[in-house]
Write a structure and sequence with these properties.
membrane, 363 residues, 69% helix, Flagellar biosynthetic protein FlhB, alpha+beta, single chain, elongated, bacterial flagellum protein export, name from scop
Length: 363
């Protein structure tokens, strides 16, 4: 008895073990919830490269705009009297000028964020991650996340990013240590230009390094995502049942449909012209109406029990039954109910109908 219980327990755990790949429906459901493999390093890398690239392209214009604002402030605004109208005009003009300076950089930053997300997850709109969930406030689950393998990987990844960016920054400063020490001998404009170039170089190099690191991070994120959405054999079966319906219920529905079809079919037998039999296993009821069809129509067919029922109804309604073994079998296999017979059976069925009409004429 203990052995049997042990086997049942092992089977139960085996059924619940996540060993199966996620089905397309499971993937679609997790995507709707916003659960997709994505690396934040891709976003950060693209953001750094495009933003510092924009600073390199528009830096001169931004410097001129800022210099113009400062010059106007000390040459014009400083002589204004403090009034509500002058303060409003001052803030409005300064806001417009600052917007002109920052708009290109902010626009490129938005494009970088949208593009980096698009290349990873495609087009996706979902509000599921924004919904309030009390489970997120569970301290036990939070502690498990802190001391999980994923948290360890994130820690190693963060240390690696900090080390990489620190090395890149130090290397750029070390390479340019000569010009850096000589900035005190240069004009303010030349010194600012030098520091601007060094800063842009650091940003571009750091962004490129993060993009290289993001390739490894994205591979890991995909692996971790696939692992988390794995399904057990029981999950796959349950999903199949939900999509296709319970097999027991489906069989009952099909049985009910067969019963309704058989009942409807039996109601057509009294109007048939002839029933062709095997004589015991097959029965096919044929009706010929020139007004409805150019060829005879199969109004009912069946084997074994259904064939017996067709013959009983035909006998009760005095429908002629003709025995033709090969024709009955062929009609059953190659004809559909409420459809005209195939052209290959025209001659054989015509002979049977002619025989039936002769009998009716004699009667």
């Amino acid at each position: 008895m203990k052995v049997s219980y042990l086997k049942l327990d092992l089977q139960y755990f085996a059924a619940d073990e996540k060993t199966e790949e996620a089905t397309p429906k499971k993937r679609e459901d997790t995507r709707k919830k916003g659960q997709v493999p994505k690396s934040q390093d891709v976003n950060t890398g693209f953001l750094l490269i495009l933003v510092f690239g924009a600073l390199h392209l528009f830096g001169g214009q931004m410097k001129e705009a800022m210099t113009s604002m400062l010059s106007k402030s000390f040459n014009e605004y400083i002589h204004w009297t403090v009034s509500e109208e002058h303060v409003f005009t001052l803030f409005l003009e300064m806001t417009i000028e600052i917007t002109k300076v920052l708009a290109p950089v902010m626009g490129i930053a938005m494009v970088a964020g949208i593009f980096s997300n698009f290349i990873q997850v495609g087009v996706m709109f979902t509000g599921e991650p924004l919904k309030f969930d009390l489970k997120k406030l569970d301290p036990i689950q939070g502690a498990k996340k802190i001391f999980s393998a994923r948290a360890l990987v994130e820690l190693v990844k963060s240390l690696l990013k900090i080390s990489m960016i620190s090395v890149i920054t130090f290397a750029i400063i070390w390479i340019n240590k000569g010009p850096l020490m000589m900035t005190s001998q240069k004009s303010v404009e030349a010194a600012l230009a030098f520091f601007g170039r060094i800063t842009i170089l650091m940003g571009l190099a750091s962004g490129l390094a993060l993009l290289c690191l993001s390739v490894l991070d994205y591979v890991y994120q995909r692996y971790d995502h696939e692992k988390n959405i794995r399904m057990s054999k029981k999950d796959v079966k349950d999903e199949h049942k939900n999509m296709e319906g319970d097999p027991l219920i489906k069989s009952k529905i099909k049985e009910k449909q067969r019963q309704m079809s058989a009942s409807r079919m039996m109601s057509e037998v009294p109007g048939a012209d002839v029933v062709i039999t095997n004589p015991t296993h097959y029965a096919i009821a044929i009706k010929y109406d020139e007004a409805k069809s150019d060829a005879p129509i199969v109004v009912a067919k069946g084997v074994d029990f259904v064939a017996q029922k067709i013959k009983e109804v035909a006998k009760a309604n005095e429908i002629v039954m003709v025995e033709n073994r090969s024709l009955a079998r062929a009609l059953y296999q190659q004809s559909d109910i409420e459809q005209p017979i195939d052209e290959q059976f025209y001659k054989a069925v015509a002979e049977v109908l002619a025989y039936v009409y002769r009998l009716e004429k004699k009667a």
